[in-house]
Structure prediction request, 976 residues.
Amino acid sequence: MTDIAVSPQRESSLAALTKHARYALSENPVTGFAFALFVLIVLAAVFGPHMVPYDPLASDTSQALKPPSTHHWFGTDQLGRDVFSRVVVATRLDFFIAVASVALVFLMGGLAGVAAGFFGGWTDRIVGRIADTIMAFPLFVLAMGIVAALGNTVQNIILATAIVNFPLYARIARAEANIRREAGFVEAARLSGNSDWRILSFQILPNVFPILVVQMSLTMGYAILNAAGLSFIGLGVRPPTPEWGIMVAEGAAFMVSGEWWNATFPGAALMIAVFCFNLLGDGLRDLVDPRRRT
Amino acid sequence: MITANNNKAPALAVEGLCVEFRTRSGLVRALDNVSFNVAKGETVALVGESGSGKSVTAYAVMGILDPAGRVTAGRAMLGGLDLLSAKPSQLAEVRGRDIAMIFQNPRTALNPIRPVGKQIADVLIRHGNVPRREAPAQAVEMLRAVGITDPARRAKAYPFEMSGGMCQRVMIAIALAAKPSLLIADEPTTGLDVTTQAVIMDLINDLAAKMGMATIFITHDLALAGQRAARIVVMHAGHVVENAPTGEMFAYPRHPYTAELIAATPDSAASLDELASIPGTLPDLRRSDLPPCRYSERCPRKTDACAQPLPLAAPGATHIVACWNPLPAPELGAPILIASTESAA
Amino acid sequence: MPTMILKRLLMAIPSLIGVVVVTFLLTRALPGDPAAYFAGPAATPQAIQEIRVKLGLDKPLVVQFGHYVVDLAHGNLGTSLTTGQPVATELRSRLPASAELTLLGLIVSIIIAVPLGILAATKPNSLLDHACRVISTAGVSLPVFFTGLILVYVFYYQLGWAPAPLGRLDVFYTEPPHVTGFYLIDSLIARDPETFMAALKQLILPALTLGIFSLAPIARMTRASMLSVLSSDFVRTARASGLSVYTVIITYAFRNAMLPVITTLGMVFSFLLGANVLVEKVFAWPGIGSYAVEALLASDFAPVQGFVLTMAVMYVMLNLGIDVLYGLIDPRVRLEA
Prediction:
């Protein structure tokens, strides 16, 4: 029995996809730029810690609060640590938080939504109730509550981000699953004896993925902002871990008295990363949506 | 506005109109050298299959083409003004006042959150030299003129509260509010039931006659065109293939495509078995190697001569055929055979 | 219309129930022992246990929940352990500060975002359109507290144009007599232009911060909605009728395009209520956000509970208001009941 996971339309659609990608990029060069930036961020996350000039945790109070110079490109913070090294090393943690949150919410929300759309009935109602309850809270407030209740570790931050984004993913996945419930290849899979769960995981979920991938890019940006915001009010990562949000929080007090480099460089890094993910998401939307509509 | 004018000059003269669309899959040469005239007060039908370019022609003339479309050549003379090269401010003056259009799908063509009376009043205020205060009352009168009962109450209604036929009447009211000299009706009866179709077409014809207004009536239904128009312009794949008075066209169609179209039109006498279909399909208009005659690839009368550019129409001709091998015309003096469709008034 | 409102209210009830339950569970899960805190560092285990009994903390969770609900029904949100004041009173006195800030931020946002979105939609894929997209995306990519900090650095520290970020009013001014709690309105009512200007000066930077933050979704939605409406059949009819540019774009297109934007406002409010907390911290704003954060860090669960509950209820009410506004503009919703 051949695996019908790759439907015939997908093979030829790779060529169509490249052609469409070229067209979309010509309409919107900003997307190409965003993609290049994304690659840069990944490289920094993977190789950064091995390439930085100083140990991000090494403090030297004699060098505290020095402005940017040739020795310290981004200056030093209040404990004499090199800001540049800390910013680059923090890329790995923030990127990890982003990717992990998005993976988790895709699995949780995607599966729940797809199950709700596919089975209907009680599954649909329960998923709907959970989503409604989550959506009744202002989302950051809920994230605050979850992290406060469970403790501020990186895992809990990731969990809180995933929970807060759950309704959106569930809703999109549910809509797509509803459409595909009666689709030909699903019927074929059912007739060839695949169980419902197999159909869900291997037929429907992969088809829902392209629609969700747009949202996932945007959620990556949100995850980083969320973690940063939590760190800012003291509910995030604990010092001395280098993470962009907590670096801004620690540097905030010094902004008012003029030592701007403490908070500005990690803040700028935050902005560039989130900006990149948002632009990428927009570009992906242009790529994915019109094709879907035909 | 309809003014006393030189009655010889046509209401609209389209000359050599060429339109291209830039799409994801290439450049579509939608219209190629489309020319026809509409005399003052005349009802002309623009007929063709889906994709023949009849609506594109109308949109190009009105200046409301999709942004992906471009007019690459040609003129559309309305009075002394070339609509295709006019400035946006000139166009805004002329639209609604001298030339108006009604569309298919009347319900979506109306603003869903604005009462219909106000939509008519908007046009009156803009073009009709009607003071703002009197516009609502005049709008009610327009609704009465298009045959809507209880117009004062209906003026406050929204499109979703009205039937398709009523929405179409409202659209006619909007189009005719400023008494234009030319109305373009793009498939105004598609989507309406048969009884309503007849009623709407009667309404348009009556109002046009009363106002001395010329009408371009776009349809894929040749029989309907035969009933309602004095002259028929047949389009195929972005070309005008034949342009003749209705009676002549049905009596002796000269272009092979027109003949096939007539044969494919159901009427009360023919049975389904006798219904012919037109062989072949429309050519892909994205091709760069389109032949000069876009019908030649599916034409049973194709000759070697058909590889040349199409013949130009003789000036002043009333029956124009764009074909090197047209069906024979009857000799002068021979009795004219009338086909089974009725000719227009 | 009244039936629509009633229906929406009824639909909101299950959500509110969910909120109450979740809030209760979350705050009971907070680390730290309120009884120990209340008793003080020198208390003996017995004293702590007595206090625990007095606070009702030894009862099973379900019973505690029951008490909680009964209290809620009486408008009693408990007492703060850190300040000793009833939570409901403190929330009520601090709410106007947050509300004034959030509303002003939203107004700033709308004034910038909507025209930006309309302009971008009338010239799609132009330089202006791309610039608008970049600006609004940048606005939402900045962490809101960072935007606040930068604004403080530039406008206070460097340029000296803005006052120090120390709250709602400079030390030299007294607050106007309390009518609404909104300093801007109250100072006008008391005919005190100086206090009005002082309050306004303190409001500018934090409101701008919130405004920049909520620009993007509004601008993006306005643009998308306008683009879609501008290519609709009825706009084509309006153009074909030769209506003026203003009539076509504003009276016909924009009024229809606003509908999805109004729906988006719900989501924007959710962001704003969250961002409020962060902005209040940066600008030392005495609102309910900072109140909650302080309580949270001290494991004082009654204020946190009250805060989360209040925010959620406000959010539900705001969404209801949005639905009503939508119904006012779109007759199809009103009349098709």
Notes: Chain A touches chain B at residues 20, 23 (CB under 8 Å). The CA atoms of residues 214 and 282 of chain A lie 7 Å apart. Chain A is about 75% helix and 0% strand.
